[in-house]
Amino acid sequence: LFTLSTTTTQAVVGKFIAGAIFLGLALVGTLPLVLTVNSLGSPDNGAVFCGYVGSFLTALVFLSISTLTSALTKNQVVAFIVSVVICLLVILCGWPPVTNMFSWAPTWIVDAVASFSIMPHYQGLQRGVISLDAVIYAFSLIAFCLFATDVVLKTRRA
Q1: Are 55 and 27 in contact (CB under 8 A)?
Q2: Number of DSSP helices (H) and strands (E) in the chain, helices first
Q3: Which of 34, 60, 101, 105 has an alpha carbon 20 to 30 Å from 75's alpha carbon atom?
Protein backbone atom coordinates (compact mmCIF):
# COMPACT_ATOMS: atom_id res chain seq x y z
CA LEU A 1 0.00 0.00 0.00
CA PHE A 2 2.81 2.39 0.81
CA THR A 3 4.44 1.86 -2.58
CA LEU A 4 1.54 3.70 -4.22
CA SER A 5 1.55 7.47 -4.52
CA THR A 6 -0.94 7.91 -1.69
CA THR A 7 -0.14 9.66 1.54
CA THR A 8 -0.58 7.95 4.88
CA THR A 9 -3.44 10.32 5.66
CA GLN A 10 -5.25 9.23 2.51
CA ALA A 11 -4.68 5.58 3.39
CA VAL A 12 -5.98 6.03 6.94
CA VAL A 13 -9.04 8.03 5.90
CA GLY A 14 -9.74 5.66 3.00
CA LYS A 15 -9.58 2.63 5.26
CA PHE A 16 -11.85 4.34 7.78
CA ILE A 17 -14.39 5.34 5.12
CA ALA A 18 -14.41 1.80 3.72
CA GLY A 19 -15.06 0.43 7.20
CA ALA A 20 -17.77 3.04 7.79
CA ILE A 21 -19.51 2.05 4.56
CA PHE A 22 -19.38 -1.61 5.59
CA LEU A 23 -20.82 -0.79 9.02
CA GLY A 24 -23.53 1.35 7.44
CA LEU A 25 -24.50 -1.49 5.12
CA ALA A 26 -24.62 -3.86 8.09
CA LEU A 27 -27.04 -1.51 9.84
CA VAL A 28 -29.13 -1.13 6.68
CA GLY A 29 -29.47 -4.90 6.72
CA THR A 30 -31.48 -4.59 9.95
CA LEU A 31 -34.09 -2.24 8.45
CA PRO A 32 -36.50 -5.10 7.64
CA LEU A 33 -36.88 -5.52 11.41
CA VAL A 34 -38.01 -1.90 11.69
CA LEU A 35 -40.47 -2.39 8.84
CA THR A 36 -41.85 -5.52 10.49
CA VAL A 37 -42.29 -3.78 13.84
CA ASN A 38 -43.99 -0.85 12.11
CA SER A 39 -46.42 -3.19 10.37
CA LEU A 40 -47.28 -4.89 13.67
CA GLY A 41 -47.58 -1.79 15.82
CA SER A 42 -46.68 1.85 16.14
CA PRO A 43 -43.20 2.28 17.62
CA ASP A 44 -41.57 5.65 18.18
CA ASN A 45 -39.69 5.93 14.90
CA GLY A 46 -37.75 8.95 16.17
CA ALA A 47 -36.26 6.83 18.93
CA VAL A 48 -35.57 4.06 16.43
CA PHE A 49 -33.76 6.52 14.15
CA CYS A 50 -31.74 7.90 17.07
CA GLY A 51 -30.87 4.34 18.07
CA TYR A 52 -29.52 3.74 14.57
CA VAL A 53 -27.52 6.99 14.73
CA GLY A 54 -26.15 5.98 18.14
CA SER A 55 -25.24 2.51 16.93
CA PHE A 56 -23.50 3.92 13.87
CA LEU A 57 -21.53 6.50 15.89
CA THR A 58 -20.54 3.87 18.45
CA ALA A 59 -19.41 1.54 15.68
CA LEU A 60 -17.37 4.36 14.12
CA VAL A 61 -15.68 5.07 17.47
CA PHE A 62 -14.80 1.39 17.84
CA LEU A 63 -13.59 1.29 14.23
CA SER A 64 -11.24 4.23 14.83
CA ILE A 65 -9.90 2.66 18.03
CA SER A 66 -9.32 -0.60 16.16
CA THR A 67 -7.57 1.24 13.34
CA LEU A 68 -5.19 2.80 15.86
CA THR A 69 -4.41 -0.50 17.57
CA SER A 70 -3.87 -2.10 14.18
CA ALA A 71 -1.29 0.56 13.38
CA LEU A 72 0.44 0.07 16.74
CA THR A 73 0.92 -3.69 16.40
CA LYS A 74 2.34 -5.91 13.71
CA ASN A 75 0.20 -8.96 14.51
CA GLN A 76 -3.50 -9.00 13.56
CA VAL A 77 -4.49 -11.20 16.48
CA VAL A 78 -2.78 -8.91 18.97
CA ALA A 79 -4.44 -5.90 17.33
CA PHE A 80 -7.84 -7.58 17.66
CA ILE A 81 -7.35 -8.50 21.32
CA VAL A 82 -6.04 -5.05 22.25
CA SER A 83 -8.91 -3.42 20.33
CA VAL A 84 -11.51 -5.51 22.14
CA VAL A 85 -9.97 -4.68 25.52
CA ILE A 86 -9.80 -0.94 24.80
CA CYS A 87 -13.35 -0.85 23.42
CA LEU A 88 -14.55 -2.74 26.48
CA LEU A 89 -12.79 -0.24 28.73
CA VAL A 90 -14.40 2.64 26.83
CA ILE A 91 -17.77 1.05 27.54
CA LEU A 92 -17.21 0.01 31.15
CA CYS A 93 -15.21 2.94 32.55
CA GLY A 94 -18.41 4.88 33.30
CA TRP A 95 -20.53 1.96 34.47
CA PRO A 96 -21.54 2.46 38.14
CA PRO A 97 -20.43 -1.01 39.37
CA VAL A 98 -16.98 -0.32 37.92
CA THR A 99 -16.73 3.22 39.27
CA ASN A 100 -17.89 1.99 42.70
CA MET A 101 -14.91 -0.40 42.79
CA PHE A 102 -12.67 2.67 42.74
CA SER A 103 -14.40 4.49 45.59
CA TRP A 104 -11.05 4.59 47.39
CA ALA A 105 -9.67 6.96 44.73
CA PRO A 106 -10.35 10.70 44.79
CA THR A 107 -13.72 11.47 43.23
CA TRP A 108 -12.25 13.84 40.64
CA ILE A 109 -10.11 11.00 39.25
CA VAL A 110 -13.06 8.59 39.14
CA ASP A 111 -15.22 11.26 37.48
CA ALA A 112 -12.48 12.06 34.94
CA VAL A 113 -12.08 8.39 33.99
CA ALA A 114 -15.87 7.88 33.90
CA SER A 115 -16.25 10.83 31.53
CA PHE A 116 -14.43 8.83 28.84
CA SER A 117 -17.22 6.24 28.75
CA ILE A 118 -19.33 6.06 25.62
CA MET A 119 -22.37 4.67 27.43
CA PRO A 120 -23.95 7.93 28.71
CA HIS A 121 -23.79 9.34 25.19
CA TYR A 122 -25.23 6.20 23.64
CA GLN A 123 -28.01 5.94 26.23
CA GLY A 124 -29.14 9.46 25.37
CA LEU A 125 -29.33 8.49 21.71
CA GLN A 126 -31.15 5.31 22.67
CA ARG A 127 -33.85 7.37 24.39
CA GLY A 128 -34.40 9.34 21.18
CA VAL A 129 -32.35 12.45 21.92
CA ILE A 130 -29.52 13.46 19.59
CA SER A 131 -27.44 15.69 21.82
CA LEU A 132 -24.59 17.84 20.61
CA ASP A 133 -22.24 16.55 23.29
CA ALA A 134 -22.74 12.94 22.13
CA VAL A 135 -21.94 13.87 18.54
CA ILE A 136 -18.93 15.98 19.59
CA TYR A 137 -17.69 13.16 21.85
CA ALA A 138 -17.90 10.62 19.04
CA PHE A 139 -16.28 12.80 16.39
CA SER A 140 -13.55 13.97 18.80
CA LEU A 141 -12.60 10.42 19.68
CA ILE A 142 -12.73 9.38 16.02
CA ALA A 143 -10.57 12.35 14.96
CA PHE A 144 -8.05 11.71 17.75
CA CYS A 145 -7.71 8.01 16.91
CA LEU A 146 -7.37 8.64 13.18
CA PHE A 147 -4.82 11.41 13.78
CA ALA A 148 -2.85 9.14 16.12
CA THR A 149 -3.00 6.36 13.52
CA ASP A 150 -1.63 8.74 10.90
CA VAL A 151 1.20 9.82 13.21
CA VAL A 152 2.10 6.21 14.05
CA LEU A 153 2.20 5.22 10.38
CA LYS A 154 4.23 8.29 9.41
CA THR A 155 6.84 7.53 12.07
CA ARG A 156 7.06 3.91 10.92
CA ARG A 157 7.29 4.95 7.29
CA ALA A 158 10.15 7.38 7.89
Answers
A1: yes
A2: 8, 0
A3: 60
